[in-house]
Amino acid sequence: MRDTPKKGNGEKRSVGSQILLIIRDVSGSKCDDDGSFPVKIQGAGVDAFELQVNGFWLVQDTIMSLLGREEVTPRTSLTLALSGVTLDLLAELRDVKGFKAGVTLRLVEEPYSHRSAQAHLARVQEMLRAAGPQDSLMEGRSPSVINTLTQTPEAPPTPHSSKNRRANSKAEQSAEAPPPPAYIQPGASELPPLTTLLPNNTHIEHPSYLLDLSLSCWNPPPGFRKLQGDFMYISVHTLEGKQCDITSCPRGFYVNRSTLDVFDPRPASSTPVCHCLTDLLSHLSPQFKHNLSALKHRPSLPAEETLSTPDRTLSWLGISSIHSHKSSFSGRLGLDQELNSQAPDWNKEIQAARDLPQRSLEERLQRDRALLQVNSAFVSAATQAAEKVIDGLVDPLNDSREEAAFLWGGVFMSVPAHGEEWLGGERGHRAAQRLELRGVQGYSDLEGDLQNLHTIPTALADYRGVRLSAQALAPGLQGPEQDEVPNGQLYGFNVGPLENPARRKLLELLAHSAKALALQRHAVLGTTGHQLPLFTSVDAQGILGADGRYYLLDVYRTMPADTNFLVEDSEGVETEQEAAGGDGFPRRYPHALCRLRPELVKAFIQHKHDQFSACVKARMEETGGVEECMNACDTRSIDAVRGACKDVGSVSDIIFEMRFNPNVFSPGVKFPDSELETVALQKRLLKEAASFIFNEQIPAFMNDCIQGPDAPMDGATLRQALHQKGINLRYLGQVILTISQSDLKDQLRHITRLVFTEIVVRSAQRLFNGYIQGVETSNLSAAVSHFLCCLLVPNFSSTSNGEESKKRSRRRGRGGGGATDSTSWSALSGNELWSLICQDAQETYRHKDGLGSNVDHLVEHYGLQKISLLREMCLKAGIQLRLKEYTFDNRNKPPISSDDVLNLLPVIKHVTMTTADATKKFQAAQNSLQKGLLEQAYEKLKEASYLFGRVCDDLHPEACHCQSLLAKVAYLQGRPAEARSVQLRVVVISERVLGFDHPNTIQQYVLLAVYLFAGGETALAQRCLYRAKVLLLTVHGGDHPYTAVIDASYKIILTKKKSLQYLQSALKITNSFRGDMDLTAALILHLLAQRLCVSGDYRGGMNLEKQAHSIFQNKWGEDHPQTKCSSEFLKNITQQAVRVERSIRQGGVELCDALPESLTPSLETTLEQLALVNGILKTSYSTRIMEFKEKLKERKAAEEAEKAKSQSTNEKEASGVPANEGEATGDEKTNGEHAQEATEENTECERGETDAVKKSDQVKVNGEIDTHQHNGDGPTNNGVEECQSDITNGVSTESQSKLKNIMMSAVVNGNECDVSEGSGEVKKQIETE
Prior knowledge:
Layout: H1 9-27, E1 37-43, E2 46-53, H2 59-67, E3 78-82, E4 85-86, E5 104-109, H3 114-129, H4 133-138, H5 147-150, H6 165-168, E6 212-215, H7 223-226, E7 232-237, E8 243-249, E9 252-255, H8 277-284, H9 286-296, H10 303-306, E10 317-318, H11 321-324, H12 330-333, H13 335-339, H14 346-354, H15 361-390, E11 405-408, E12 411-414, H16 425-444, E13 453-454, E14 458-463, E15 466-472, E16 488-491, H17 501-516, E17 522-525, E18 531-534, E19 541-544, E20 550-553, H18 572-579, H19 598-622, H20 626-631, H21 636-648, H22 676-707, H23 715-724, H24 732-740, H25 749-773, H26 780-792, H27 802-811, H28 830-845, H29 855-862, H30 866-877, E21 879-882, E22 901-904, E23 907-910, H31 916-930, H32 934-952, H33 957-972, H34 976-993, H35 999-1014, H36 1018-1035, H37 1041-1053, H38 1059-1074, H39 1079-1094, H40 1098-1116, H41 1121-1145, H42 1163-1173, H43 1183-1214, H44 1221-1255, H45 1275-1287, H46 1293-1303, H47 1315-1328
Parallel strand pairs: 1-5, 10-21, 13-20
Antiparallel strand pairs: 1-2, 3-4, 3-5, 6-7, 7-8, 8-9, 11-12, 12-15, 14-15, 14-23, 16-19, 17-18, 19-20, 21-22
Helix pairs in contact: 1-2, 1-32, 8-9, 14-15, 15-32, 19-21, 22-24, 24-25, 25-28, 25-30, 26-28, 31-32, 32-33, 33-34, 34-35, 35-36, 36-37, 37-38, 37-42, 38-39, 39-40, 40-41, 41-45, 43-44, 44-47, 46-47
């Protein structure tokens, strides 16, 4: 890969190194251990500058970093020299002799090769193109639009360090934000205009640099000139009108004497030979030199906005290509064809990256980065290959039209045939492709020695209704057999008895991988009747490639079968399953490849383990108790374990071990008689797992949607939430049925709305796939717009727009009526399409009645928005529409025309490469947060952020979550400036990696508003809240729990009287989704009470605070600190109301007095409330903490009694009474038993606290708030101090400070604060002291 330069590769790598340094500076990570220090760079015609490097960098990585610097761009073919000695490209900087901090490195110009000269031209072309955000929209990528909010003339009031100057220089704002538009105010009936989602043009258009830059007509050079070093001839037309030909040679570029009519390759008189083409062009054209200087000195964007994302995140909206399409010189220079002519061996590239050493952290980071980059390049090549194949630009490798195969760019593309009916036709083959990808992902994630078991790089591309399987070329299939390497199939159902070292090694790898994937070793009957041991499904094949690596192919049936969609011939199965809780299950599905998800298998194993533990305990209780059985020397404990293993279905009878046979319920598979008992057990386990979905996972999903902090907002987050519980999307109909039969169906109406939308979109997509395949290329845009109109407009038909279609056809020069102009797609009507959707929904999800007769039924009964449905359909099918307003109420005019369809893009599914070290550090930070250890979590988050930057330049979803968590912790630690800087990057990353309107982006905008408000940037904070509300209303609508968070946040930031309506709206939404006795409602009631007190309505505030106090009292009781805080605030309101009433009776004597401080929220209280509303801050007071306080009091009393006893003993000794040694020994023994008893008591208390945190029915608010600090004068803090003084009375000062940190620990990102664990640690320290 390093020897194959690609267009833009150097800039990408270099900017990646820059962001690495930025991340390290911002996060404050320790870099001394890594050898970070500055060096001076000079030479090669560039001004001297300083570069921050790390000792572990390779020389070639340093060069790639330099090539992206503004001072060096667009120079290429450079090397580094130290003291006149050229450095080895593969050497690390710290190993170079004489290399140290402050050393001067010289850039040395290297001679060009033909390919490196072409790479230099590509670099120059890319720089002159001046890419901007609009280009990402043209390519179908999601852009970043945060700069449209922050790029204003004035500087922000919050000071920032020079390290973050690039990120913060753009975050300037005007003095005041405009008032909120009417469409985002509570109760607004109209939706926000779509034109507000994306800016039309936010960057200044760059000037032209040349009139033309192309290959000369004299290209390619004749043979005698090739022998003299001519690579190519380039024709240049400058802005001054001068035309000339340039020769590319090993030394660089120079002007020759050729004209349009005469070929004369000799150098022109007085022309220099320049190593960089832009130097020569600046010599030829003063205007080019001036514009190039302006280009280099333009304001640079942060690296997050300029780096290429690993994957293309689709944008369903775009701008018109007529006015925004830029001229590119790449086609006229022939760069696209030349640089991509050599197709890489993707399998060799990825396997070579997988085989990189992993002995140290640095080696693992380099390996993860290499894997991510190669996989990203493979996915990009698969995307381009899919477009080329479907557009008809690639000839098939075979003559079969049923199962065509193609090869482009090193990617093998196949369209599977649909002849095998047992799979379920086309849907079955699509499922097989999807499951194959999932199986490849599962085996790719294995760690350790199991990484020696390889899979073929795989991706799926859905484009224009066709699903293509993209794979790298398998090894050993392109070359002859080698005697020394036993190339061929070693494992599989069709492999007969075979014994050799290679097979034994492969079976060993398969055995270990089966244990990691919870697959059972089993035997089946082969084709000849012999027993065949298997560790996978019967479809899998194991081979030893010509490269000496072991590969596993055809892994689409790796996971066990889902018996809910498997109807056996015997009659007992269906009755048994229905009795287990399914409604109409088992039942048939359109295809025969219904498999359980890995998440479900993992959750079910944990469920069975809990049953195993309970069963062992119950059996021991029956035979004398747990303690007695554990201490006895008999077999009672062993018998209890054996019995529990048998009860839960463990594959082992001595330990708990749960595995599954993927071949159970597979058609055509026969098991030997010795396996019948095991197969019967496997069938029982799979049926239990299927029932587990109904009985446990779907109710758990519903509970998370109510109590969890992040309720799904769109189809993507709904699918993610379902998959996290192991629920396949084929259960969507069952989810609706379960919700409709629940008492919480009204609180889950937003989930019902999303599920209906997902059913309609998925059914419509399946119909769209078959619909669009038969459409001619010239009619694609018209056919897509027609389908969308039929979906969104009831009773829509082609008769209303038939004349307009003919006009469009005539404008294209393909006047209607021709023999080859097939317009059968236009015969589809709205009623017919909806009928087909209902039929597909009934067949797939067993749900038809709820869809009604057209889309308006869903709009009226479930609050579905047509614009949200349009967005989901476009994202699913890869459709990009013009950014404009769409009206769906006018049935006489099509809301979407053919000109509104800008593009059809491939939708790619691919393997996700892991970032193991960064992910582990991130998880460790989350665990620290759960214990309330903020400082420790902050350090780990900085380390995780640095590791993510090293691997993926932060352009990764998990890196986005890590940075967001880092910003929250920094904010809680009193670093609002750092939180603001980090959160700005988080918003950019989320917009580019997840989508500009993704639900996570909405939440990140709100969090950014919190940090901006804390830094005094109120106007900018309001604009961020405006954008978040606009995105939420477009994506889902206002009827969602997160609307209350945005409205409440806006009230806290806004100081005007109109803020009252936002709080009232937030309270109404919260009551409707969480109930009027929820803690969130209590918090909002308190905010309303504060607002009414500020406006002088003390009686109204008193009534609202009474309701809040009632909720706190009902949830926690009178003695809870939060209840006491509410009582104190209510007391202050009552006193003020009495004073006001008295002043009114006395003629208004005291009416002009200021509002008491106890009723006026301070800035600190306001920030605290804002953090509570958004789930940033939470102080947990569980009942276990109260129990802990009581235990400490009891222990203190026992210590005082012991102290009194010892004093009385000392008095006796002083009076001459001898102490009995036996008594003293007894006292020591008693003290030792007391200490041991106290330790056991604390351990038991700690375990109980942990169980209480896990199992208690806690009500969570926007971040799982269970106790809210919101009193105006801060009595909550007083309550905390009072509670702490009670708990820590008699405890050492150091232990008190540690316990105070735990009591006041804030928990971030919706994770429950495990106070018990931290308090347990303090208790152990107290005992030690």
